[in-house]
Every structure is written in C-alpha cells, then in structure tokens.
Design goal:
There is one protein chain. It is built from 18 helices and 8 strands. The chain is 50% helix and 10% strand.
Length: 397
C-alpha cells in the first residue's frame, strides 16, 4: 500500500470520513495495521511498548467512532480502495504535466500530492527532498516555479530539507477559482492552510521567491504565529507611483495592470509566444536583465542542462495565466501588512536586482516589521539558484 498511496493521503481520507486528524504516530500505526501487521508485531518492530501502541489504537478508534480494531481496518481499507480507484481517474493535465517533469528530472526524491482539501477543491503540491527532512513551504516565483533547480536537487539531501511547493492557480494549467486574481489567490491560500493542517505541517516555515510574496503573507494572516518564520526572497512590489529604481520596462507593466487589467492576459500571452523557443528565451532573458550581471551569469550554465529547454516551454506556455495573476496581485500594499503579523519575517534582496523596489520598501520598513538583508553579489533570481543561502535564512543555520 505504501507504494500506491502516500501517508498524508491516508490521513486525508481518515479526516474526510471521520472528521478527525490522526497524529503522526497514530497514522504510522494505522498504516502498519492496514499493511497486515498485528499490534504486537508493530510494537516489537518499532521498539515501543505494547501498552503505548494499544493506547494509540484506542485513540484512533475513538476518533473513528468504532469499537473494534477489525472494523477500523475494514472501513479504512474500503475507503482507501475507493480513493485509489478514483485517484487514477482524477488526475488532470496539470498533475500529469508536472508529474512527468518531476519523474524525468528529480528521479526518486519527489512526491506529487493532489488531495481534496476542506473546501472540496483539489490542491496540487510538489514535495521534493527526503521524507525526514526539515520541512519548508515554498511559495514559488513566476519564472522558476520549483525549488531547487533539477541540477541542484542534491542540495536537499545535503542540508536535510524537504520542500513543499503548492502550485498557484494559472501555473502548470492549474485552473483559477475566480476571474478575479485576488479572489482566486484567497481561495488558494485557504486550501494551502487546510493542506498544512491535514498533513501535520502547521509549524512549517514559509519561503517565497519574487511573486510568491503576496500569497505568503496572506497565508501568514491565516496561520498566525503557527508559522514561526517567513523568508521573502526578492519580493515584488508595484506601488501606485513609480519609483526611480523601477526601470521603464517594469513601469510599462505596472501601468498596464492598473489602467487596463483586461489587456494583461493577451499581453502576457503574446510575450510568452514571442519567447517560446530556447534561443528566443535566452535573448529575452539577457535583454530583461541587462542591468544585472548576477542574473546574466545564471543563464549561461543552464544552456548546457538537458532539462532547461523543457522548463522554458513549460513555464511560458503552461504558466502565463499564473504570471498574469501575479502581476496584478503585486499591486497589493503588502509592506503595510508586515507590522501586524506576529511572525519572524526576513527579507532578502539582491543589490543588482533591477525590478524589486527595495529602496522604497527599506524606507517604509525603517520603523520595523521585518529584518532586511541586501546581498551585494545577488540579482533578482540569485536566491533560487543559491538555495542553501535561503535555507540558512529559513532555519537559522
């Protein structure tokens, strides 16, 4: 069974049926019983006393409202059989697309979850790194939706980190729940909070890259102090009035989003089509980041990576709706939210970043609300290519 359904999915089916969530130790016991072990065998194999395991089983039966162990195993077996049968027929293009990409480029160190959460909606979550790694929730960027890049995947085992990445609406063809980007993002944040609760990850720190900032802080509002630390890498902010730090290209997008929001989708689609070829993307990237040598230095080594061309196509054709949503959401005045949040918030900007408005943000946060670091050798995208630096911020290493 362990090869067919993930532990977290067993917890999810238990909660959907009985309205209660098993603890991690109760969940492991339940899975052992479903796999055919007796209570005594499981107690011996784990080195935990029979009395402790018996108490855990009693707690499980109480949560399920069932008097006998046999009834619990029978009911859960039927529920999981139906879940597995339905799972095969409920994987949309978004799941299939991301699953194939992960299988090709992340080998065995990945899981892909597609649970139905409390709202009745389904949430697509990439899960990278060792199962026993320190968890972090990654609110992804627009250009590079996964952390780390495939050629750096071994950093997760080296640092003992497990990265959960919920995929926002509009990325990898995940559908939006509303035509209004902010409403769709609100639904997404509620679903992520539900996912964290069911997967017993409520104390997980949050890491965001660029446009993941608004969703991260909205989630922090929902979770409160249960999210111990939030690290915002190159968080994007598009104020009402342009700042001299923002170049003309970025000001054009800001004006389009504010004055003609309905034109953002076709504009982003045209941009994606114009760059949907490796050589076109490289030219576009180099033009976009001409003012940032650290960003330019990132692209050249990637041209030799076998997965790079595939990622370009995926992120341009499969993610343009999400990028459009993020452009509009970036106008939220998120710096004003920071002082009201109880979390330890740390912001990392690259000194060469041509698009992040960190000069104005530094001015606004002079009175507090977050710890800000300007990294001399970083551009806008440097953080995601130096994940060990971000993990050190997240875990205080």
């Amino acid at each position: 069974m362990r090869n067919v359904v993930f532990n977290e999915e067993v917890a999810l089916t238990f909660k959907s049926r009985f309205g209660e969530t098993p603890t991690p130790s109760e969940l492991e016991l339940l899975i052992a019983l479903l796999c055919g072990q007796s209570l005594a065998e499981y107690s011996d194999s784990t080195g935990v006393s029979y009395g402790t395991r018996r108490n855990q089983l009693a707690a499980l039966r109480e949560k399920a409202g069932l008097k006998r162990q046999g009834d619990l195993v029978t009911v859960m077996s039927v529920i999981l059989a139906n879940f597995i049968h339905g799972k095969a027929g409920k994987e949309p293009a978004s799941h299939s697309l991301l699953s194939k990409y992960l299988e090709r480029h992340y080998k065995s160190d990945y899981r892909l979850h597609f649970p139905e959460v409390e709202s009745g909606r389904r949430l697509l979550v990439a899960d990278l790194g060792p199962l026993d790694g320190r968890p972090v929730l990654f609110m992804h960027s627009g250009f590079f939706p996964l952390l780390p890049m495939p050629h750096q995947a071994d950093v997760l085992r080296r640092h003992g980190v497990r990265v959960f990445t919920p995929i926002r609406p509009g990325y990898f063809f995940v559908p939006s729940t509303s035509e209004e980007p902010f409403e769709s993002l609100t639904d997404f944040v509620e679903d992520v909070a539900s996912f964290l609760m069911v997967f017993n990850q409520m104390g997980t720190p949050i890491l965001s890259q660029t446009y993941g900032v608004v969703g991260s802080l909205m989630l922090a509002r929902v979770l409160g102090s249960t999210a111990p630390r939030i690290v915002l890498s190159a968080p994007q902010y598009s104020p009402d009035t342009g700042h001299e730090r923002i170049n003309k290209h970025h000001k054009g997008w800001i004006k389009l989003c504010r004055s003609f929001p309905r034109l953002v989708s076709p504009a982003v689609w045209m941009l994606a089509k114009s760059m949907d070829a490796p050589e076109k993307f490289r030219r576009g990237f180099k033009k976009t980041y001409a003012e940032s040598p650290p960003d330019l230095s990132l692209i050249e080594p990637l041209e030799l990576q076998p997965w790079f061309d595939e990622l370009i196509h995926l992120m341009l054709m499969g993610n343009f709706v999400g990028f459009r949503n993020d452009l509009i959401a970036a106008h939220e005045d998120w710096p004003a939210w920071l002082s009201d949040l109880p979390n330890d918030i740390r912001i990392v900007y690259g000194a060469h970043d041509p698009y992040s408005n960190h000069v104005e943000i530094l001015e606004r946060l002079r009175t507090g609300g977050a710890d800000i670091e300007i990294v001399d050798e970083f551009g806008q995208n440097s953080g995601i290519f130096h994940p060990e630096r971000l993990f050190a911020k997240v875990f205080g290493d």
